């Protein structure tokens, strides 16, 4: 592997540098460093253009100049969330939380059987799973997409192996066929599976969907698992409100019913999911960390 790859946008250098900064930069300098970092990453052309194209669908009528400035806000929030995640892992500094839809979250906690948490690449997925595990008696399995860069992947997998709570397990979607069976068994044991349902990674089966009027795809796994295990799906999203302040928003669960027409059952369930996803993204577009166009129509 070429030595310079570690300095590319997905390279391991940036993860190592972030950890160093969390441990050594004074807290009063943190906003300045994060602001500078966010400005620097505006030079990342593919990521910047991906966010801007997504914003044209989420915010119809928005201008290129306006979306360029909005992209900085997306990068700013992303930098804060990954910083907060590393600070929690290294120093166990937990942010403040509040809840919307607390009754749905409590219902999830009180269930005897398994359940699926379906969320998106927004807010702080990793930190939310750790906080959930710390405050729950339930076993939770967090499914993550593997990192693109091999060195970064090895770094992150080793870090997750060191940092896990007793009732939190992290699995990676790169081993799709084996993982599906493992997750089904977890649900049958009454465990909770947390999966991001807004983006399809290579090698993962997908279902067609519409998002803001554009054709896209969502991972098939959560819906197939919910149907096979007969467990509900809980849409839950995490938002960053401010410096080390977050909100967890839980929405009413839905089921993927077994019918003679599986295609129709999946279409109905995907539509329920995208309705909630659209509602959230319309109000919190600056929290959606999707750095590629979500639809080929935006490419």
3D structure, described in words:
The protein has 299 residues and is α/β, with parallel strands linked by helices. The chain has helices at residues 12-24, 30-40, 45-58, 64-91, 102-110, 125-134, 150-163, 176-188, 221-229, 262-283; strands at 96-100, 115-119, 140-144, 168-172, 192-196, 206-211, 214-219, 233-242, 245-250. It has a seven-stranded mixed β-sheet with strand order 1-9-8-2-5-3-4, sandwiched between helices. The chain has a two-stranded antiparallel ribbon with strand order 6-7. α1 crosses α4, α3 packs across α4 (64-91) and α8 packs parallel to α9 (221-229). The mean pLDDT is 88.
Percentage of helical residues?
40-55%
Helix and strand content put the structural class at alpha/beta
Strand percentage, roughly? 15-25%
Strand order of the largest sheet: 1-9-8-2-5-3-4
Determine the mean pLDDT. 88
Poorly predicted runs are none
* Shape label: globular
- The count of helical stretches stands at 10
Summed up, the domain count is 1
The helix-strand sequence is HHHHEHEHEHEHEEEHEEH
The separation of the N and C termini measures 30 Å
* Computed Rg: 19 Å
Number of strands: 9
Reported for the largest beta sheet, the result is: 7 strands, mixed
Could you give a short description of this structure?
With about 300 residues, the protein is α/β, with parallel strands linked by helices.
Task: Summarize the SSE layout with pairings.
Blueprint: H1 12-24, H2 30-40, H3 45-58, H4 64-91, E1 96-100, H5 102-110, E2 115-119, H6 125-134, E3 140-144, H7 150-163, E4 168-172, H8 176-188, E5 192-196, E6 206-211, E7 214-219, H9 221-229, E8 233-242, E9 245-250, H10 262-283
Parallel strand pairs: 1-9, 2-5, 2-8, 3-4, 3-5
Antiparallel strand pairs: 6-7, 8-9
């Amino acid at each position: 592997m070429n030595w310079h790859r570690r300095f590319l946008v997905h390279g391991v250098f940036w993860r190592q540098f972030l950890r160093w900064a969390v441990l050594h930069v004074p807290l009063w300098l943190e906003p300045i460093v994060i602001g500078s970092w966010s400005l620097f990453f505006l030079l990342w052309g593919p990521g910047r253009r991906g966010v801007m194209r997504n914003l044209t669908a989420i915010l119809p009528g928005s201008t290129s100049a306006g979306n360029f400035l909005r992209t900085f806000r997306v990068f700013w929030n992303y930098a804060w969330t990954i910083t907060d995640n590393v600070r929690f892992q290294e120093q166990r500094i937990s942010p403040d939380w509040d809840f919307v839809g607390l009754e749905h979250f409590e219902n999830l906690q009180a269930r005897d059987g398994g359940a699926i948490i379906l969320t998106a690449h927004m807010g702080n997925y990793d930190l939310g799973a750790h906080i959930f595990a710390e405050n729950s008696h339930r076993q939770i399995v967090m499914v993550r997409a593997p990192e693109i860069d091999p060195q970064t992947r090895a770094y992150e997998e080793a870090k997750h192996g060191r940092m896990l709570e007793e009732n939190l397990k992290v699995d990676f979607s790169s081993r799709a066929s084996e993982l599906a069976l493992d997750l089904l068994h977890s649900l049958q044991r009454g465990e909770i599976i947390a999966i991001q349902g807004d983006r399809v990674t290579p090698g993962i089966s997908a279902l067609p969907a519409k998002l803001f009027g554009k054709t896209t795809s969502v991972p098939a796994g959560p819906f197939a698992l919910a149907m096979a295990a007969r467990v509900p799906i809980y849409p839950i999203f995490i938002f960053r409100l401010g410096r080390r302040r977050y909100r967890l928003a839980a929405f009413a669960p839905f089921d993927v019913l077994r019918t003679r027409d599986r295609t129709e059952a999946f279409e109905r369930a995907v539509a329920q999911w995208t309705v909630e996803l659209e509602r959230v993204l319309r109000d919190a577009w600056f929290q959606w960390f999707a750095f590629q166009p979500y639809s080929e129509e935006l490419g």
